[in-house]
Amino acid sequence: MARSKEFEENVVLEKAMKLFWEQGYEKTSMTELVEHMGIHRRSLYDTFGDKHTLFLKAMDQFHEKVCATLVGKVKRSKTATEALQHIFSFVIFGDEDSPSGCLMVNSAVELAMRDADVDLKTTELFVLSEQLFKDIILWGQQNGEFNPDYKASDQAEHLHAVYVALRVMTKTSMRKEKLQRIADVSSKLLSK
Fold first, then answer.
1. Among 133, 142, 177, 186, which one has the highest count of C-beta atoms within 10 angstroms of its own C-beta?
2. d(CA 78, CA 36)
């Protein structure tokens, strides 16, 4: 008779995600994963496969979590400017219980050039993020907040580049006030 699982998959996957997020793929050992997740090595392999498969599932978990958070913030915004402020605040200040930076950006830097699966996942998320910026910019152009003289897609590319750069800079000792100024200037460049 097979033993029933003694853990909730999403809970232990969240723990793995945070460890990968904090340390990166290469630096995180299977022993650390087992200890941090609080499950047996055999259970890890039976449930999630090998380290690489677990990492890809952790990336998916991160993707779902961040997308839901950002889309929720945008939907609750009254204006396009407010939506951008919410996104940049989330990037700069994050959640108290989460590591700084971004698992997807970190993974792109660490692995995308040599891991096709990671490259695909990070590129997909970057495309979605850029589309979110484009939708916000179109909203702002339609309601008169943003300058309609530039294509929304071009401006979205620029904002996404700033977004990724801010994700990287949050992992440094750079002051949050400086990061906020960068975000504010980027938003103001859209204005009429």
1. 133
2. 40
Q: Residue 26: how many CA atoms within 13 Å on its side-chain side?
A: 9
Q: Is 97 helix (H, G, I), strand (E, B) or coil?
A: coil
- pLDDT per residue as tens digits for the range 127-184: 999 999 999 999 999 999 999 999 999 999 999 999 999 999 999 999 999 999 999 9
What one-character DSSP code corresponds to residue 185?
A: H
Hunting for tokens 């977004």 — which residue is that?
163
Rounded distance between C-alpha atoms, residue 41 and residue 128, angstroms: 35
| Extents of the domains making up the chain | 59-188
Question: Which residues lie closer than 8 Å to 187 by C-beta, 6 or more apart?
Answer: 81, 84, 85, 88
What type of residue sits at position 57? Answer: K
Backbone torsions φ then ψ of 146, nearest 5 degrees: -115, 150
Sign, CA dihedral 41-45-46-52, equals positive
Q: Which residue has 């930076």 as its token pair?
A: 101
pTM of the entire predicted model? 0.91
State the fold for domain 59-188.
Answer: Tetracycline Repressor; domain 2 (1.10.357)
* DSSP character string of 1-65: -PPPPSS-HHHHHHHHHHHHHHH-TTT--HHHHHHHHTS-HHHHHHHH-SHHHHHHHHHHHHHHH
